[in-house]
Amino acid sequence: MTGYVRLDARGRVGAVHGQGPCSVSYSAPVPRPGNPDIRRRLLASGLELFYARGVNATGVKEIADRADVPKAAFYTYYESKEAFVVAVLGQYWLELQDRSGSLLLGRGTPVRRLQRYFAVIADEHERHTFMRGCLIGNLALEVSATSASVHEKLRGIVCVWEHELAAVFTEGTPQRRREVAGLIIEAWEGAVLRARIDRTRAPYDRFSRITLPQLVGLVGTS
After folding, report:
1. pLDDT of 84-104, one tens digit each?
2. Which residue range(s) make up the domain with 194?
3. CA gyration radius for the chain?
4. Phi (first) and psi of residue 15, to 5 degrees
5. Which of 63, 98, 163, 218 is deepest in the core (most CB within 10 A)?
6. CATH number of the domain encompassing residue 195
7. What angle do CA 159, 175, 20 make, to 5 degrees?
8. How far, in Å, CA of 23 to CA of 160, rounded?
């Protein structure tokens, strides 16, 4: 068995079990009690600051100030900055699913559904002039090597992502579908990086027009 994923009702990573490169042992931390509006503001603040400055250059006080929350109150909601980064990643994934996840379940061929799905994400990147990139890729480069909990959260999210993309396909073996889904994620993250460098949508257009059809065509081959 190569692994399976358990999500909660909102599509958040709960736990991933099994063996293989996509499988991790991870349990989402139980949120501390508190005012949900304050928690929402803290997460929104962290998301914006991590995009703009990264995790290491952002302090707890700056996060709290932007959210209009006393610094001491931050620790009522999160036991550490590291736990907060994990929570921000979870919120990022939830928002991504809310924006575009349903497109994977819509009508059309696998290529068309994937093109619509990634176009919505590309539209969001374009609204920010391609400067923000993908938080998953950003934090994988900045924090994954120094934080075990962030690394495990990233692995869990990517595992769920891979399984959701693989579910679009109707041909090929389960293993082949997951392999191609993994290639799609890897190609997409490369397009995100190039778009940040060139500040243009062209890498996304090439990904949609050339890369996606080529990769989807591999599903039915051995």
Report:
1. 999 999 999 999 999 999 899
2. 4-32+78-216
3. 18
4. -155, 150
5. 63
6. 1.10.357.10
7. 50
8. 10
